[in-house]
Amino acid sequence: MKRLVILGGGESGVGTAILGKKKGYEVFVSDKGKIKDNYIKVLEHFEIDWEDEQHTESKILNADLVMKSPGIPDKVPLVVKLKEKGIPVISEIEFASKYTNATIIGITGSNGKTTTTMLTNHLLKNAGLSVGMAGNIGDSYAKMVAENNFDYYVLEISSFQLDGIVDFKPHIAILTNISPDHLDRYDYKYENYIASKFRIAENQTEDDYLIYDADDKDLNDWLSKHPVKSKLLPFSIEKEMGEGAYSTNENIQITINNDTLKMTTESLALEGKHNLKNTMAASTAAKLIGIRKETIRQSVANFQGAEHRLEKVLKIHHVEYINDSKATNVNATYYALESMKTPTVWIVGGVDKGNDYMSLMPFVREKVKAIICLGKDNSKIIDAFGNVVDLLVETYAMDEAIKVAYKIAERGDTVLLSPACASFDLFNNYEDRGNQFKAAVKNL
Question: Where do the Mur ligase central domain residues begin and end (predicted)?
């Protein structure tokens, strides 16, 4: 019996354990931290051997195969030892894909991947297809493969998950965009991070498709030097595309094999230029699968966006409160500020991942009337914008930040939480930060 060792007892780890057990592996789950009670119950229900708060090397280094949680870097001594012994260390998507014949749509990119994944799933569901949505979002992909027999999977895939693939290939890959993020995991080399994202296409053949942002210089440069085998379907809001998608101010046009779908941009449920791109990417995938034009038009018109991503919370005294807590990097906040149409009170700050705020300067000058810092150390934000806005206030708790915003904001303004930073200084995670924002707004 082959031994499958799983490092990390979270969603992907436990899901992989269930699938591994079902496929006849001897399974062992090991987590250096504490495994949550609900996951322990699942492991015990399936009679899967586990440990937490330690890695017992004698039980790990005898594996035939190791599935590593995406949160564990490759440089960890235990992972290095495994690789030196020639034991394959793979990701959940690599493991689970071996056990399904479903058509896979894989979505990666620095920003926009969650929205694009949710919208693609929405398009397929509305068309009546049998589809599972997994990966970086929602339930474990491996668990879905163990328990369902879907015809399609829509997977949100991070670069960390792509680092652990060998044979994985989606039939349709979407690369939303690329911007420097997580560089600490890539020796601070941007090209290593770009290479990692492009692994989504490395096993594709000429029968597969790569949908990508043709306006992204880094993507274009990389593709010109490292061609892929798959058929390219670019999308653009800057130039006309023969094959692929492009948009003018009023319309979106998607052409595949001389068949064109047209939609008005006015009918889209999601606002902002970045969401125009997300919509083009998802709709191109839907059209490739053969979903009817009318179904695509209806689906993009009635889609509800992702929670904590430009999520409209409430209007109080004609002031709109928007929760964009999922904006954990500068690029995500760039899109948020770009889509603001009214004077904005911007709540920003948290754990800075070496942020460069300069790209936000034009939007801050044009749209932001006040900045509320929300973090333990706000010095970089103060240095960047202290002289640009009339009012900058430091706060150290969400309630406090919302009370200040309520005092500053006037009729017709927007209060935007778009932190551009990770949340771990004051919150458990970005969801906790977003939920506290919503609760504080509702308490006004």
Answer: 107-286
